[in-house]
């Protein structure tokens, strides 16, 4: 009996590596500390009522961003482990198998569990406020999306300590990811972790699309929407068309592994190439999903901090929608070397290069917005300015990669690695940082410390170039991606050391940011204006942080930069100094619900059961999922009203006119 | 059952969904459009390529019939844009890209399997 | 931000109150379009892999058309009756509404019965899911549609219970509109299944 348990445990838990034991211990300690802390300070009820069951988009947004920052830490540690292993030729820091796991989880975590939630967090915090809405279209679904994402991410991360991590690359290509070559549970964790969070992403896409279409403030026509909202609109369009493809692809891979299917196997008529074809139909639009909101953020920031209106609004909108559309026509450039023939490669090479045109339009629009502006270099603007050169270099190397014949040389080399890190860090991460610094006061009511932010900024930027510029050269020298080590005689040693130094500089930058957040929280100065940046759009017309109902009075809009125009009119004396006392009305609010977290937990249980082929557990989980659906369908809670007097009181105290 | 066939008013404007007449027309058209390809295929009346044409054209026509007579895509609320139609067209375009693109890309890769 | 602006270009300006049923209808419509993409991807997989029979049977060898034709007309009729249910609802007749829903439900269940029967026969004859790439993609494509219909049946049952308890109100009306849209959609998907999988398979 005891032997059996020992046997089971040694297979169930990941064993044999001191690094993992260390991580196990720290995870266990942190978990115990959190539980003990919550119990000691009697915060369980508070946590449940105010956060876990909330349907308030602002709180959900904060939870997304928090999760994203934690995941950035995890993915960043993965990156540093890889760079450490590659610092010196023939270094023995990670086993090759462990190295495979680390690069797989690094990619998955960074794209799906860092960039995506960071983006959704900003969607949630900003979009309803920017369009003058009380909440998103489906607040309950919004909470469900978050918990599906969170528990999907947790399921994926569980593979670190239980069962073993996936190790077939971030997109899990068959045949390597098939049962035959990868019998452990790692790939199942991959499939279910992404599948569960993917359903959440799809729901978010639908939710924000309906929100933007239907819930804009009176007078805000589509062509008067703020640029960030436009970018979210374009992103949601891509999400709803791309994510179902991911769902199907992963489901088919799972059927291969679980039920003996022959979609992507080497025998039985399966075709692994079909998987590669399908996954990139999602994968390529996915990179536009994460970059477009960053474009939206830059557009907001650049106009506010240049104290000008955005240059070329209409061309921005068209460029964004063209990118969204063309993004569905470029997927084959990820596998030019697959052998689909010259006509296929020619088509996809040209469509890929076409994307550079609308992107170039946007770059010029940002530059022209800055031209003759009175620029303030606050943190959001710093990141925006840093983005432009980084993204131009990344974009140009992208065009090089799009040249199909030349791609046979670059394919899967460090040149490619350098390219996509340049656009994903220089574009996406810089963009989301700009957004985080810009909207942080709206989320929490205080600014993040400027000095620490600048230290972090410079460490990030210098580290970024030191890390990735050498990688272009390494790629041209023949270093391929996913190699766990290399020999002295390759001559790759010096550049790899430089690259590793750069990676550590970015690690230091992240530590600065962590300190920055803690420091700013401790020494926070309450923002009483609600409009700390002298901004242009509706979210800055309400107090920071926003009250739970957002707008006491639904605003009416007649221009693209409503707050900016209002301030100008006020300054010109065209508006009365003080508005007449508004007449408040009761505000309808949706009720909190515990179903989303329970629903997602059942999904987690089902995923865990499938991962280990424990059918009873999977069935139990799915039954729970169904029960939650039934419970929701039968529930006819229609929310509640905040009485007008209470709104009046809250407004008066928040705006300091009590 | 309903005998006022053109008595289609609902609770309010947004819910006024079709009439009995439109459902019956849609139903009959759908049956006809199902029978045509069935007859063509089961009796081997044509060569493969024309048969595929007949099958696809009747399928698409039937889809259109259902969209108009069953799903009422023509209805709109007030003077708002037809978001549902736009989304549908874009969605169908993407499906076309997914299917035809896969076939095109995989033609060369399918050889030998 | 001018308060005096005209609000003509916006349908509802009742201080942030949006018709929840209207939102749900649009949201559900978009969900259906994501489902279109989902089926589109499965179709793409089927079309690419359906020649890969690995020495096993092809569609022409195993498809039994009589059952499939019966399924087709049953589902088509159920789509029609679900429309009649909506008509009854618009007239405010609860009993008639429930009656048509029950008819639709029975037809849907008959469809599922025939499909399960077809699958069982195939598996019994040794042409199961893991026989070849063709069989895997066939079972997945048709089975996913069947799963959708089954989910719809469960959902319809829930709605019948809710209707008999609460009658027709704004909430149940929205739900009936949504499920009837869903049901029509499943019928439309079946048309393409019939065409691409069965008719092109046996021709």
From TrEMBL, chain B:
<dbReference type="Pfam" id="PF03626">
    <property type="entry name" value="COX4_pro"/>
</dbReference>
<dbReference type="GO" id="GO:0005886">
    <property type="term" value="C:plasma membrane"/>
</dbReference>
<dbReference type="GO" id="GO:0015078">
    <property type="term" value="F:proton transmembrane transporter activity"/>
</dbReference>
<dbReference type="GO" id="GO:0019646">
    <property type="term" value="P:aerobic electron transport chain"/>
</dbReference>
<keyword id="KW-0249">Electron transport</keyword>
<keyword id="KW-0812">Transmembrane</keyword>
<feature type="transmembrane region" description="Helical">
    <location>
        <begin position="23"/>
        <end position="46"/>
    </location>
</feature>
<feature type="transmembrane region" description="Helical">
    <location>
        <begin position="52"/>
        <end position="73"/>
    </location>
</feature>
<dbReference type="InterPro" id="IPR050968">
    <property type="entry name" value="Cytochrome_c_oxidase_bac_sub4"/>
</dbReference>
<feature type="transmembrane region" description="Helical">
    <location>
        <begin position="85"/>
        <end position="106"/>
    </location>
</feature>
<dbReference type="InterPro" id="IPR014210">
    <property type="entry name" value="Cyt_o_ubiqinol_oxidase_su4"/>
</dbReference>
<keyword id="KW-0472">Membrane</keyword>
<keyword id="KW-1003">Cell membrane</keyword>
<dbReference type="InterPro" id="IPR005171">
    <property type="entry name" value="Cyt_c_oxidase_su4_prok"/>
</dbReference>
<keyword id="KW-1133">Transmembrane helix</keyword>
<comment type="similarity">
    <text>Belongs to the cytochrome c oxidase bacterial subunit 4 family.</text>
</comment>
<keyword id="KW-0560">Oxidoreductase</keyword>
<dbReference type="GO" id="GO:0009319">
    <property type="term" value="C:cytochrome o ubiquinol oxidase complex"/>
</dbReference>
<dbReference type="GO" id="GO:0009486">
    <property type="term" value="F:cytochrome bo3 ubiquinol oxidase activity"/>
</dbReference>
<dbReference type="GO" id="GO:0015990">
    <property type="term" value="P:electron transport coupled proton transport"/>
</dbReference>
<keyword id="KW-0813">Transport</keyword>
<protein>
    <submittedName>
        <fullName>Cytochrome o ubiquinol oxidase subunit IV</fullName>
    </submittedName>
</protein>
TrEMBL record, chain C:
<dbReference type="InterPro" id="IPR035973">
    <property type="entry name" value="Cyt_c_oxidase_su3-like_sf"/>
</dbReference>
<keyword id="KW-0249">Electron transport</keyword>
<dbReference type="GO" id="GO:0009486">
    <property type="term" value="F:cytochrome bo3 ubiquinol oxidase activity"/>
</dbReference>
<dbReference type="GO" id="GO:0004129">
    <property type="term" value="F:cytochrome-c oxidase activity"/>
</dbReference>
<feature type="domain" description="Heme-copper oxidase subunit III family profile">
    <location>
        <begin position="26"/>
        <end position="202"/>
    </location>
</feature>
<comment type="similarity">
    <text>Belongs to the cytochrome c oxidase subunit 3 family.</text>
</comment>
<feature type="transmembrane region" description="Helical">
    <location>
        <begin position="26"/>
        <end position="49"/>
    </location>
</feature>
<feature type="transmembrane region" description="Helical">
    <location>
        <begin position="69"/>
        <end position="90"/>
    </location>
</feature>
<keyword id="KW-1133">Transmembrane helix</keyword>
<dbReference type="InterPro" id="IPR024791">
    <property type="entry name" value="Cyt_c/ubiquinol_Oxase_su3"/>
</dbReference>
<comment type="subunit">
    <text>Heterooctamer of two A chains, two B chains, two C chains and two D chains.</text>
</comment>
<keyword id="KW-0560">Oxidoreductase</keyword>
<dbReference type="InterPro" id="IPR033946">
    <property type="entry name" value="Ubiquinol_oxase_su3_dom"/>
</dbReference>
<comment type="function">
    <text>Cytochrome bo(3) ubiquinol terminal oxidase is the component of the aerobic respiratory chain of E.coli that predominates when cells are grown at high aeration. Has proton pump activity across the membrane in addition to electron transfer, pumping 2 protons/electron.</text>
</comment>
<dbReference type="Pfam" id="PF00510">
    <property type="entry name" value="COX3"/>
</dbReference>
<protein>
    <recommendedName>
        <fullName>Cytochrome bo(3) ubiquinol oxidase subunit 3</fullName>
    </recommendedName>
</protein>
<keyword id="KW-0812">Transmembrane</keyword>
<dbReference type="GO" id="GO:0005886">
    <property type="term" value="C:plasma membrane"/>
</dbReference>
<feature type="transmembrane region" description="Helical">
    <location>
        <begin position="97"/>
        <end position="114"/>
    </location>
</feature>
<keyword id="KW-1003">Cell membrane</keyword>
<keyword id="KW-0813">Transport</keyword>
<dbReference type="GO" id="GO:0019646">
    <property type="term" value="P:aerobic electron transport chain"/>
</dbReference>
């Amino acid at each position: 009996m005891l032997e059996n348990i020992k046997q089971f445990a040694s297979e169930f838990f990941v064993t044999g590596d001191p690094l993992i034991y260390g991580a196990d211990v720290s995870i266990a300690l942190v978990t115990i500390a959190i539980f003990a802390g919550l119990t000691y300070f009697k915060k369980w009820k508070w946590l449940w009522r105010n956060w876990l069951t909330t349907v308030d988009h602002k709180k959900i947004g904060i939870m997304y961003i928090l999760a994203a920052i934690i995941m950035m830490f995890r993915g960043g540690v993965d990156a540093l482990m890889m760079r450490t292993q590659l610092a010196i030729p023939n270094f023995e820091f990670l086993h090759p198998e462990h190295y495979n796991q680390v690069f797989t989880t690094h990619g998955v975590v960074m794209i799906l569990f860092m960039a995506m939630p960071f983006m959704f967090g900003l969607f949630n915090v900003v979009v309803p406020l920017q369009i003058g809405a009380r909440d998103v279209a489906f607040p309950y679904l919004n909470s469900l999306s978050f918990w599906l994402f969170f528990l999907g991410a947790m399921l994926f991360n569980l593979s670190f300590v239980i069962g073993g991590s996936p190790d077939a690359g971030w997109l899990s290509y068959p045949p390597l990811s098939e049962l035959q070559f990868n019998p452990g549970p790692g790939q199942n964790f991959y499939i279910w972790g992404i599948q569960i969070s993917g359903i959440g992403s799809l729901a978010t896409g639908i939710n924000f699309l309906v929100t933007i279409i239907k819930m804009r403030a009176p007078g805000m026509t589509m062509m008067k929407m703020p640029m960030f909202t436009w970018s979210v609109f374009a992103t949601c369009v891509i999400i709803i068309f791309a994510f179902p493809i991911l769902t199907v692809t992963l489901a088919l891979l799972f059927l291969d592994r679980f039920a003996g299917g022959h979609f992507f196997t080497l025998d039985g008529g399966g075709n692994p190439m079909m998987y590669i074809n399908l996954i990139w139909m999602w994968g390529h639009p996915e990179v536009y999903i994460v970059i477009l909101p960053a474009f939206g953020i830059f557009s907001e920031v650049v106009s506010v901090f240049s104290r000008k209106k955005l240059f070329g609004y209409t061309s921005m909108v068209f460029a964004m929608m063209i990118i969204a559309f063309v993004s569905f026509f470029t997927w084959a450039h990820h596998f030019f070397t697959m052998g689909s023939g010259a006509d296929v490669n020619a088509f996809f090479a040209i469509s890929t290069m076409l994307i550079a045109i609308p992107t170039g339009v946007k770059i010029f629009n940002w530059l022209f917005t800055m031209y003759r502006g009175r620029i303030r270099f606050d943190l959001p603007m710093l990141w925006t300015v840093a983005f432009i050169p980084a993204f131009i270099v990344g974009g140009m190397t992208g065009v090089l990669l799009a040249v199909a014949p030349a791609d046979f040389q670059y394919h899967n080399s460090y040149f490619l690695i350098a390219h996509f890190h340049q656009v994903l860090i220089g574009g996406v991460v810089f963009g989301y940082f700009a957004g985080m610094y810009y909207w942080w006061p709206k989320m929490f009511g205080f600014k993040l410390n400027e000095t620490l932010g600048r230290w972090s900024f410079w460490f990030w930027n210098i580290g970024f170039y030191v890390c990735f510029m050498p990688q272009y050269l390494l790629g041209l020298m023949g270093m391929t991606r996913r190699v766990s080590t290399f020999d002295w005689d390759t001559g790759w040693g010096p550049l790899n050391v430089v690259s590793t130094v750069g990676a550590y500089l970015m690690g230091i930058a992240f530590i600065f940011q962590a300190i920055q957040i803690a420091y700013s929280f401790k020494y926070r100065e309450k923002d009483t204006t609600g409009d700390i940046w002298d901004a242009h759009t509706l979210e800055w017309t309400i107090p920071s942080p926003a009250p739970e109902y957002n707008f006491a009075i639904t605003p009416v809009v007649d221009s693209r930069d409503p707050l900016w125009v209002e301030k100008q009119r006020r300054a010109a004396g065209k508006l009365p100094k003080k508005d007449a006392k508004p007449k408040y009305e009761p505000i309808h609010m949706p009720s909190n619900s515990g179903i989303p977290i329970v629903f997602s937990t059942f999904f987690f249980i089902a995923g865990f059961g499938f991962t280990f082929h424990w059918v009873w557990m999977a069935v139990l989980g799915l039954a729970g999922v169904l029960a939650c659906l039934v419970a929701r369908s039968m529930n006819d809670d229609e929310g509640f009203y905040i009485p007008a007097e209470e709104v009046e009181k809250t407004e008066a105290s928040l705006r300091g006119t009590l | 059952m309903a005998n006022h066939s053109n008595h289609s008013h609902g609770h309010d404007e947004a819910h006024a969904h079709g009439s009995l007449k439109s459902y019956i027309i849609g139903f009959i058209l759908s049956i006809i459009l199902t029978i045509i390809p069935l007859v063509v295929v089961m009796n081997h009346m044509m060569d493969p390529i024309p048969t595929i044409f007949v099958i696809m054209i009747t399928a698409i026509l039937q889809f259109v019939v259902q969209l108009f007579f069953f799903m009422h895509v023509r209805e709109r609320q007030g003077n708002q844009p037809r978001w549902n139609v736009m989304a549908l067209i874009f969605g169908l375009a993407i499906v076309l890209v997914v299917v035809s693109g896969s076939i095109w890309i995989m033609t060369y890769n399918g050889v030998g399997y | 931000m001018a308060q005096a602006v005209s609000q003509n270009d916006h349908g509802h300006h009742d201080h942030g109150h949006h018709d929840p049923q209207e939102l749900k209808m649009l949201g559900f419509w978009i969900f259906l379009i994501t489902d279109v993409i989902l089926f589109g991807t499965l179709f793409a997989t089927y079309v690419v892999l359906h020649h890969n029979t690995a020495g096993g049977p092809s569609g022409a060898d195993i498809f039994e058309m009589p059952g499939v034709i019966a399924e087709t007309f049953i589902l088509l009729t159920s789509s029609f009756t679900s429309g009649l249910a909506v008509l009854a609802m618009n007239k405010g007749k609860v009993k008639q509404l429930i009656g048509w829903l029950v008819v639709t439900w029975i037809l849907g269940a008959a469809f599922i019965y025939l499909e399960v029967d077809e699958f069982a026969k195939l598996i019994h004859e040794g042409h199961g899911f893991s026989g070849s790439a063709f069989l895997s993609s066939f079972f997945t494509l048709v089975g996913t549609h069947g799963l959708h219909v089954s989910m719809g049946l469960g959902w319809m049952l829930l709605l019948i219970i809710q209707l008999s308890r609460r009658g027709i109100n704004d909430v149940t009306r929205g739900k009936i509109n949504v499920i009837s849209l869903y049901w029509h959609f499943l019928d439309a998907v079946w048309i393409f299944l019939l065409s691409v999988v069965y008719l092109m398979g046996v021709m």
